[in-house]
Each structure stands twice: as C-alpha cells, then as structure tokens.
Amino acid sequence: MAHKHSPRIFLAIGTVLMVLTLALPHAAFASQPGASPMAVVVADAQGLGSSPETRDLAISFVGLVANLRDDQRFAFINLERPSLVLGPVPGGVGPDFQKVQDEVASQLSSAPSTTGGDLYNALAGAHGLMGLEQASPGSSVYLLLGEQTAQGEVGIRTRIAPLLAEFVKDGWAVHTAIPPDASASVTSLASGIASDTGGQRFTLSIPNGFQTLAASIMRDSAKGSLQGLAERVLDSNAVLSSALDVPPGTRDTTIVFFKQDGAGSLRLTNPEGLEPQGGPGAYYIVDTPHVVLWRLIEPAAGAWRVDATGLTGILSVMSFSSNRYTLRLASSASLPIEEPVTLVAYAAEGQRPVVLDGAEMSAHVRISDGTTVVYKMNDDGLAGDPVANDGYFSVAVPPLTAEGDYFVELVLSWPEFGHQISSQAAFSGRSFPSLEIRPLPLGDLTPGQRTKVGTAFVNVDGEPFPIDADQIAWQVASAGEKGTIEFEPQRTSNSGRAWLFDIYFTPAAGGSHNLSFLLSLDYAGRAHVHVSGSILVNALAPLAVGSAPAAVETQPVAQPANSSVLPVASPVSEGFQFPWWTLAIPVALLAIGGTSYTAWVLRTKPHGFLYNDKEELVVNFAAIKRHPALKFLFPSSVFGKELKVPGLEGVVFGFTGNRVSLRSRRTQAGVRVNNEPLSRPAPVYNKTWIGTHGRLYSFLASRPRSEPATADD
C-alpha cells in the first residue's frame, strides 16, 4: 500500500513534482483556449481523521466543494500521499463522484500515519496538476487542516511562500478550512496561507461555516446565490416540511441540506405528489454526513415539497435554480436622442424567442444622471408593442436627453412562483438623421398645376446628411382627389445623393390638402424612421366653362322723409364682408382629421403571400412586423424595405379592398411584373409573377392547400 512507503520517497516525489511545476510554462497552460475552472482539495488526512466528528465534517466539506458547481473539474490530494491523485472528475452532482467520495472517506478513515505528511509537496503537486490540466484563472485549491500542527511544520509558511506566489501568478487562490477546535497555530497558519493568495479561511461548522463556503463557491461561479427555504432546530419526533416553487423553463434545481445530525430521513415529492426517480437526466443525490445535495434536471414547474424526519439539531435547507431562458434586448444598440423610442426585449431559449405564460418583464434603465427608471414592458399589443403574444415585450420610453451609453437590466418574473431572472444590456443614445420641412408662403393652388410648396432639409444634429430621394416617403390627406408630390435635389453629391430637396405638389382637385413626410433609412446598424412636420395647402376648385362669378345685388335702405336720425351706413353698401377666410384652417383641419379617421377605419390591411421560384414562402404580408409610424401613416401600403427581399427595396405594395397594386419609388427599379417593366403602377393579381435582378417571385392571394396555415395567417 502507498502508506507503507518511506517518507523519503514521498519527499523525492514531491520534489520532482515541484521542480516540474516550476520548470514548465504553467502560466501558459492557464491561459490557453478551452481552459476550464478546477477545484483541488488538499487534505491533512492524519489530522482530520483523529476524531469521527472532524472526519465527517471533512467528508461533507469535500462533497460540497466537488458538487455545488457543475462547470468545474474536481481532484483530491491526500497530504500524506500526494502522488496518488483522485480525479480529476467532472463537477456537479452525478455518478462520477460516487467512487471518489468512497475513496475520500476511506482515506480519511484510515489509521493515521506516524510520520505525518509534507504540506509543501502536496501543494506543489496540486499546482503541477492544475497546470497540466489547464485550469483557468479563478480556479481554487482548498487546504483542509487538522486540529493540531504536525511536528516539523513550524515555519512552513516561510518555506511555502515562493510556491504560494506561483499560485497568485496563475490566478489561483488557496482557501483554507479548519475544524472548530483547531489550535492557535493551525488557525494562524490557515489565515496566513489564505491571506497570501487572496483566498478565504472557512470553519467546518453547521450551518454557518458550510453556508459561508457555499456562498463563496456560488459567488465565484457568478451563477447567483443559494436562497433559504427553511432553518430550524429539530428533535427526533419533529417533521420539517418546506415548499419549493419551480418556475417554468428551469434547467436544473439544486437543493442543499446542512444538517447537524448525520442520521434522519429526507423526502422529496413533485407537484403531482410523487417521489422523483433517480438516474441520468432526472434526479441525482450526494449524501454526506452533514451535507446532502439533490439536483433535479429539468424539473416540472410547480410546487415541490421537501420533508425531513428523524433529525436532531439544526437543519438548514437552501436551493438554487438555473433557467434555460436568457433575456435579450432586441432594440438596436444605438437609439436616437430627443425622440420617443421603444425598447423591445424577449426571452430566448437558445437563439429563438419563446412565448411565456404568466411571465412579466421590466426594464431598469439607468439614465444620464445616474438615476434608474423602471419601465414595465408588455406583450399585449399596447403602449409601443406592435403585436400581442408574439414573445416580444415592448415599452415606449420618453426621449433620451443626451448622447452617451445607457445601461439596462432586463428582469423576467413569474409572480405565481415568486421567481425572477435578469440580465444586463446596454445601448447608446446618439443623434440620428432628421427631416426638416420648410413650407413656402403660398396662396391658393390651381388643380393640375405643379407648384413648389417648400424644401426638405436632411441633417444630423444640424449637419447636412445626403440621402437618396426615395428614402423620403410622403402622404397626402384630402377630402377628395389627392395629388402627387415630387422631390428635386438642389445639389447632388458624386454618389447622386442630396440633403436639400425642393418639394413640388400637383393637386388633383380643389380643396384642402395636408402633405406629410417621413424619412426612412438604415443608420447606425438599425432601421430609422423620422416623422417630420407637414404642409397644409389649399387649391381652388376649377370654374365651369363659360361661367362667371355671380354678381351680388344690394338694395339701399330706405329712410323716412321726416327722420332726423342720421342714416346708418349699410354693411353691404360699404363693402363689408365677414372674414370667412378665418374659418379655412379650422375647417381644413376638421376635414383632414375626418378624412384621416375615415381612412383609418376603412383601411385595407395588407394581405397575401409572396413565394420564390422554389415555392418557399418569402413574405406573409399580414404578419409583417412594421414600425408603428409606418403602420399608422401608411396602413394600406407596404414599402419594399419592410419586406427585406433583395431587389424589391424601391417598390410599394398598395392594398385597396381586394385589389393589390405595385408601384416603383425609383426611376429605374429593375422590377418587372409579368415580364413587363414596372414603369407605372401595375395591378397585382393572384399568381402574378414579379421579377427583379434575376430572382422570380409569385404573389398568391392565399396559401396553397397543401401547405398548412399558421397562427400568423
């Protein structure tokens, strides 16, 4: 057996390990790609096995260190036999640890040697093992010391100082743990080693010492913290029952018992009142005298129940759950300042958004002055959310007031389960292109006559920003026939773009016309829409051929012959007329408002489908996620950019009743409808072919019968 070997052999082995450790470029190992965390327990088996109580505490300590984290590897080194390493084995509750646990218990229960171990060689062996295993920075060594300092170890701290410096160099802390009744010299040694390496000293005690250890492990893993379920002092006849609410989407749940009594019975039942079955993919147990861990893999959502019977003394129950959902900010990384913006976020399983029942989401935004504002988000199709129950939570927030970085914490909660998850995100506020409309002072326009009505200035924070003319969309609201708007650049750049445009309007008929404009482009990695001011113009109704203005006939007011009252001038005779022009603007606004409201109520929603030549669905017009401004201003039109179909960026689909039309916003769009160039608006019927840049698409009024409909239809 190994413990019959001469101490000189152990010293020689330790010296070789130390030399190899210091000679090899172990710092390079720790920084190599693919490195993962590692935990190594170095135990003074002789000192810890001196009493059954201390031995059981040590076994429980090892079980907690090895199994609380599932993203690390674990190894065990006996200070008396440093050349015989147990592990490494994967961390986390599972079958691989059972053999290690049995061997650890066997070594700690063995008869103490008469010569003691060598702390220097054991730590050198741990350092060499971690280097060869490419342990990542943040990995740890846990040094378990006995109650008394072994003979010959006085001054050991000075001897191991260079070795401890190597641990610090590689980013590995050395934590220490001592029994409650450790001597002053052991306590001093443990505190010094931990202090020299940035580690922490723990006490083997129930429940405080083990709870402190568990909190440290969870903090290092950055996965959250253990939450208390129950804590009580029990007698042998008492029963402790505790409920554990498991929220939807839970990947795994770990329940940890810290118990003063090594005996007793623990029972777990699922929401259906049944005990889960152990085995891979379901339920794992690690059972040590003072620490018991249960790990549930993808447990059913609902109320689980924990019962403890036959225990004496303190019992503390804690838990931790990891969720398979991650929270992501769908909004662009850059948002415009001084404009209302909408924050959009979603819960993802892998890369796909998921729709969650009974879940609520909020955004905690830290604004420029350091204040945090909490906004409740919704997936109800309200307050900035365009589509209800699609998994995307939205909220309209006030305009950002300053450029800079804004940090947001997304919080998803299940009120029914009292559980929440969160994630950190950030976006920047910056100036975006805006469209400034400058109307010209005009009188009444003549129907059919092209007239310059104003200019459009595209800028970013006052600086000119050149664009293509077709990036400005327009809408005419009229009580009758509308008219057409044209943009002519005053000066173009080498790329054919401009930032200053003359606006021409040709009214189709008399009446009031409200001209509204919208800038739509991609900027700073996101689709940007800016709604500008509008221009209100009036056009005279044309007179019938051969007609003339009707004359106004007036009659003088007769006065009595003997009247001494001075004659009062007749308003008509003096040419006074009521200033009817003062009612023009209110009447026009009422007409435009009524027309807009009527158009919105009677609007035709986009419909139909676009398939490619492989009979693959490319666009479902009814399910397009549109910008709220575009959806409001152009409810019956869909711009090609919204389709995200190559080659169709410069067209507009119009929907009127059952009719569909297609027009081009560019002079040469390169689009053909049924093999005819799209030079003017063209009707689109069922099975109409649309070609562009070598691609061919087919418009269908409904899905083929062989293809099942979806919830979007």
Characterize this entry briefly.
The chain has 713 residues and is α+β, with helices and mostly antiparallel strands. The protein has 5 domains: 2-221, Rossmann fold (3-Layer(aba) Sandwich); 227-323, Jelly Rolls; 325-430, Immunoglobulin-like, CATH 2.60.40.730; 433-539, Immunoglobulins (Immunoglobulin-like, Sandwich); 609-700, Tumour Suppressor Smad4.
Structure class: alpha+beta
Please identify, by name, the CATH architecture of the largest domain. 3-Layer(aba) Sandwich
**Average pLDDT over all residues:** 79
Q: Can you tell me the number of structural domains?
A: 5
Gyration radius from CA atoms, angstroms:
40 Å
Give the uncertain stretches in residue-range form: 1-34, 545-582
Query: What overall form do the CA principal axes indicate?
Result: elongated
Separation of the first and last Cα atoms: 75 Å
CATH class (first level) name of the largest domain: Alpha Beta
* Main β-sheet description: 6 strands, mixed
Query: Largest beta sheet: what is the strand line-up?
Result: 3-2-1-4-5-6
